[in-house]
TrEMBL record:
UniProt record similarity statement: Belongs to the major facilitator superfamily.
Keywords: Membrane, Transmembrane, Transmembrane helix
Biological classification of the source: Eukaryota, Fungi, Dikarya, Ascomycota, Pezizomycotina
Spans through the membrane: 87-108, 155-173, 185-206, 218-239, 245-263, 314-338, 358-377, 398-415, 421-448, 489-509
Matching CDD domains: MFS_Tpo1_MDR_like
Protein name: Resistance protein
Localization, UniProt: Cell membrane
Protein's organism: Aspergillus sclerotialis
Domain of life, per lineage: Eukaryota
Amino acid sequence: MKTTIGKEKAPKAGSTADAMGICKLLSKFRSDDSYECGQLPPDYSREDPEARTAGVVTGADNSSYDVSFDGDKDPMNPRSMPSVRKWAIVIIVCMGTLCVTCTSSIYASTYTQMNPEFGTSSLVSTVGMTSFSLGISLGPLLTGPLSEYYGRRPIYLVSWSLYIIWIIPSAIAKNIETIIITRFFNGYAGSSFLSVAGGTVGDIFLHHEIQAPMALVSSAPFLGPTLGPLLGGFINYYANWRWSYWSMTIWAAALLVAIILLAPETHHSTILRAKAKRLRKQTGNDRYRAPMEKTAKSTGRAVALSLLRPFQLLFIELMCLCLDLYSAILLGILFLFFRAFPLVFRTTHGMNLWQTGLTFLGILIGMAVGVATSPIWKLVRERLLGKSESEPEYRLPPAILGGVLIPVGLFWFGWTMYPDIHWIVPIVGSGVFGCGMLLVFTGVFTFLVDAYPKYAASAMAANSFARCLFSAVFPLFGTQMYENLGYQWATSLLAFLTVAMMPFPWLFFKYGKVLRQKSKFALDT
C-alpha cells in the first residue's frame, strides 16, 4: 500500500522499525469521518498483499481490516469530485429545500379563493400551514439520523417520491380537513432536504471550501417561504387556487429526475461500508471492515441511537440548544409575517393579493444581499486563521452582525407602518431584517456542520425540528397579536425577543472552544 502524507513517503514493509514508521505516519492520517489509524501490530511484515491496493490497514493478528479512503483525492471520496459536479449537487439540494418551503408558504395565498369554497374561516385555514410546519419539524428527526446510517441518496429518493405523492391530495381536495391532514404528511416527506442538505455539503467540500455552498444551503429554507407568497399572489389572482399545488407538483417531479440522474451517494461511512463489502466479495476475506461495521451494536440498536441523537444534541448540548432556539424564533417571526403582511399592507395601504405578495420582495432582496456577502466572510475567516488553527467558532462572525441587523430591521418595519409614510419604507426595513436573518442562519448552520462533523445531519435535524416547531405555532396567534397590540407594538415585541437572543453568537464565538472540549459530540480542536 503506497501512502503519501505531505512530503513524507511510507517506508516499505519488512521490519518492525519500518512498521513503526508506517504507524507513525498513518497516525497523522484521519479519514473524512474522523476515524484514526490505531497502532499496527509488530508483525506488520506479514501484511495481506491484496490489502496494499485496497486502502486498508491490516495485520496478521487483527480480526478486521480497516477500510478507508486514500486521502481526499481518492476517486471514491466524494470530495474528489469535480467542482461542477459538486455544485450541481448543491443546486439540487437547494432547489429541493426551496420547493418544500415554498409549498409551505404558498398555501397562505390560497385563502381568498379556498375559504369561500370550503366555507371556512382564516383561523381554521391557518391550521393547514401549522400542520405542514409540524410535518417539517418531525420529519428530520427520522430522515437526518437515517441518512447517517443508510446514506443520503436513499433518503432523498424515497422521501422526495412520497413528497410528490402527498402534494396531489391538496390539489384535488374537497374539504379543508383533507388539506390539513395531507399537508402534514406532505411536510413530513419533504423535510429531508432541510436536515440532510447540510450533511451533504459537508460530505463533498473540504472545510476551507464550505463557506460559499453553505451560504446557499442556509439561505434556501428562508428564500423559499418568501418566494411562496410572491408566486402565490400571482397564481391565485389570475388562476384557480388549486394551481398553487399543481405548479409545486411539476417543480418537484422535475427535481426528482435530477436527483436520480445527478445526485450520487456522498455519505462517507456508507461509501466505505460498500467498499468493504465489495472487497469481502472480491477477495473472499471477511476481515475487511469499514469503521461503522466495527461496532458491536446491532442494526436496530444503531438506528435507535441515531434517532435519539438529535434530541441529545438539542437538549444536552448548550450551544445547539441556544442557537437552535434563536433559529426557531427567527423562522417563527418569518412565518408569522405571512399572516401579518397581508393584514398590514391591505389595511394601511389598500393593496390587493398580488401586490401584497410583492411586499415580500423586501425580505427576499435582503436575503440575496446577505448571500452576496459570503466572500467578505470568507476573508474574515482567513484573517482569523492567520492567527491560529481553524476553529468552528470562526464561522460565527456573520451571525454576530446579523444579530444586530435583525432587531434594527424589525423596529424599522414596525414604526414606519403608517398610512402617511410611503409603503417602500417599511419594506426596506423588512429587507434589513431579511439580510440579518440570512447572516444568522449562515453562521449558525456552518458552525453546526463544522462543530459536529460526525453528526452534522443530526445537528441540522435538531435545528430543523426547533425551527419548524416555532414556525407551526407563530402563525396561529399572528393576526390576533397585530390586531390587539397594534402594528407598531406587535412588531416591537418580536424585536425585543431577538434582542434577548442577540448575544449568543458572540458568546459562543468567544467561549465555544471551551464548551466543545466538554462535549462528547462536538469536534475537539
